[in-house]
Amino acid sequence: MTPPQRRRRFPQEQPPPEPVTAGGGKEGEEKNPERLYILTGATEGGERAPIDLVTLIVAGADPPPTATPEQSALLRLCQAPLSVAEISAYLSLPFSVVTILLTDLLAAELVQARAPIVRQAMPDRSLLEAVMHGLQKL
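Structure for DUF742 domain-containing protein, as requested:
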């Protein structure tokens, strides 16, 4: 049997909890650079894939059992096309770390990188309508 706990009649005010950022640390604290180095691993050549913030990434396969937790999360996240900036935000990792993870996944052919569709590269609608009307008159 446990002894009863004494309680104060007038509890003292507790200080509010410190705010926590999305990365898990407290505000103003920097992320541990050693952790980021461990996430990226030792890259042999240092070559990175030509990826920028707006490159769309699509997963081509399920995460293999040998994948790191970050790579598995990235593959699950990219079932639908996502930009590298969105992936970086969702995983709370810097762009450079995401680029290295994506380079490894691209080399293993687990993801595909696609350039974003540029509006100026698409043909003008009025031109397409003129061609369509011309073909209908034939």
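The beta strands are 56-59, 82-83, 111-114.
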